[in-house]
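Task card 7
Instruction: Convert sequence to structure tokens.
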Amino acid sequence: MRSLTFFLLLFSLRLLSSPITLYTSKHGLINKHVNCIERGKDFVWIGTNGGINRIDFRGEKPIKFSPRGTSVPVTALENDGKIIWVGLKGKGVYMMPKENYKFIGFRKDVLGDKEILKIEKVSKGLVVYTSTKKYEFNFSDKTYIESEHSIKAYNPVISIGSKTLMINHGKLERFNKSTQSFRPLDLAILANDHLNFHKGVLIASPSGLVYYNPAEDTIQFGDPMIKLEKVQLNGVDTIAERLDLNWDNHVLNYHFICSELGDKNQITLNYTLTGPDGESKGFINAQEGIELSELGHGDYLLVVSAVNEKKISATNKLRFKFSIESPLKDSIWFYLIITGALFVWTLLVNGLTRAKFKKDIKVLEDALIEKTNKLNTIERSKYGLVEEDELEL
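Output:
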């Protein structure tokens, strides 16, 4: 019955269509908190907070979990033929024969109270690491060398097929080499150790034993891009299309999403604002977004691009148009000025018309007088009349 339940659990996990499979104490681990993984000839050995599991796999699927309990966490494992070297938290190093799983203390005089972080089998003996020391034991003459040593934080680069996993902010995530960016996995994995295994990778984590299968990972990295997340006008979400705004002291906030460029705090937004007063440029962290305020009336064009701290730029730019109406439009002063302008124009046209009319009248009067004088001259000549001022008295 337990076997049937176990395979049903595995089957249900596979139906999730995820590249991640998580094994915990429900599946057979002696404790879900896994600290280390070691490959043996026929089995995989797992060190947990509750002891050791020997796991028999069929392909990529575990079919049997054999436990060996301990009173303290198992912090290190090293395969050595017929034995497994075991590091226990605060209790030193032990040999465990694979035939009986019994623990035999090793150099308790030196390692008895140490917290073991790593064990390495070498040709002449054993190398044991703690957080501050390195111990090199020579089996032939039973001597050892102690030296200062610090183990760096676990920060692997795990390459499986076309996929790469790396630590990002403490969690194991997909890594895009071309853009130096990360994409999170379906499960937040705090990795302690890993083992490349059957076209995938086994990962030791506080949540359990994780198997990552890159063949089932449908996430594909694309080009680095910048996209609009939202636009706010005076603190209220609004449309991103061209905005025609009334005259006021508006505040516009633009927020963006960047893909394949990393976290927002690692991305810089470069922007250019072209308006009635010319062109202005600026830059700001993508986490803050772009804020525009104290703008005069007129038409504006905002152009935005993105670049991360590794100088990788988004392949696209975003453009946004908006306008702010003149403060005179739709106000009483606007109509008063228009009315005044029409009145002045009317007076000007009327004045010009009257001046032209007077000039035309004067021309007509002069022409009429000239014509009359000519007619009088003709009449006088006809009857021999002369002007009074021409007579001699």
